[in-house]
Each structure stands twice: as C-alpha cells, then as structure tokens.
Amino acid sequence: MQFFKDMITLNPKDLGSADIPIGLILLCFCVGMIAATVVISLTNATVYRVIKALSRHKCTDAASAKGLKALGLAEDRWVLRALKREKPILGRYISSVSGEGAPNAPIAVTQESAQESEDLPTEGDHAPEGENAPAAEKSPAEKKYFLTPEMSDRAKELLSRGEVGVLQTVGYCALLLLLYFGIAAALTWLLPALLS
Question: What is the pLDDT of residues 92-106, one digit of tens each?
Fold first, then answer.
C-alpha cells in the first residue's frame, strides 16, 4: 500500500528539488486518458449503430430516408442524445429531412452541419420555449435520416471494421492503467537515484 502512496505523492521537492507533483500529474493524465477512451468508444459505437441501421434499410438519399422508429433506434438513448446535440462526427455521415408535407411534395433536405448556423439566435432574438417553440425545430425522433452520399465509402469502411465492443474498451483502459503503473513505478525508483 505504501508503494501506491509513494507513486501518487511522488514529488522532487521531497528530494530537495523543484516542487512538481509528478505523481498527481501522472494520475490525472491517466484518468483523463481513460475517460477520453470511454467517451470515444461510446461515440464510435453510436455512429456504428446508426450507419449500420441506415445501410441495412438502404437509406441512401432523401427519398429513402427513414425515421428512428423505422430504423429501430427510437429507444437508443445514446443515439437520441447524439442527434439532439448534433454531434459533428455523426453529422459527417448522415443527413436529415423534414417529415412534414404532402406525400408527393418534395422533401427539403437539411444537412446537420448547415443547420447549426441557422439555429444560432441573432442579437435581440430570444429562443422560444415550450409550446411556443416554432414547428421548424423538430426533435430527432420526428426527423428522417439517410446516409450522406459523399461519405458512403467511408461508412462502408467503418462498417467493415465492426463495432467497438465493451471488452475492447476495457482492454484499452487496462493498457492505460498498466502504462501508468509502469511509468509511475519506474519514476519512483529512478527519481531518487537521479536527484541524489
């Protein structure tokens, strides 16, 4: 237990040198890398599920676009959250269309990235809330989605790699922990020898 405490509290100040909390810096870096790994894995898994569903239903243009319910993603909270926040990674691969209008009327295509600039309020404007919100702002569940044609090759490549699984993410996190313990242990032994 003392060994782990020495790794966390490692500081050259204790050896008569500069006050740099190396142990805490390494620990914070490791925790940050693990958190980033988990977030990236969740994002990649979400993008994979959306692309897989759109590919399976052959949603390749505005005419073949489908809603989340038809794609089987209406209950997936990670997909709903990513679409609601208009994640740029997901926005590269998909486009959305409005679900309103007459059946034969042309559907207005709205790119996710272009919509961000239109949604920004101008000075003096106040974003309406509740029932007074304009009908133009639709929730992700009310929109229809399709694969962006320009990214079809990249989407196929992503599908061929497969979904990032939980075990793969845990493996990456375990590797980061091993690196942390290895570097911290090495510094615990080397720093006193170098500064003495």
Answer: 888 888 755 332 333
What distance in Å separates the CA atoms of residue 80 and residue 140, rounded to the nearest whole number?
7
* Nearest in space to 95 (alpha carbons), one of 159, 150, 43: 150
Interval 10-60: pLDDT, tens: 777 776 777 788 889 999 999 999 999 999 999 999 999 999 999 999 888
- Asked if 15 contacts 23 with a C-beta cutoff of 8 angstroms, the reply is no
Residue 112 to residue 106: CA distance in whole angstroms: 19
φ, ψ of residue 190 in degrees (nearest 5): -80, -35
The C-alpha atoms of residue 19 and residue 24 are separated, in whole angstroms, by 12
To the nearest 10 degrees (0 to 180), the angle between helices 22-56 and 152-161 is 110
Residues 143, 133: Cα–Cα separation, whole Å: 16
Helix (H, G, I), strand (E, B) or coil at 145: strand
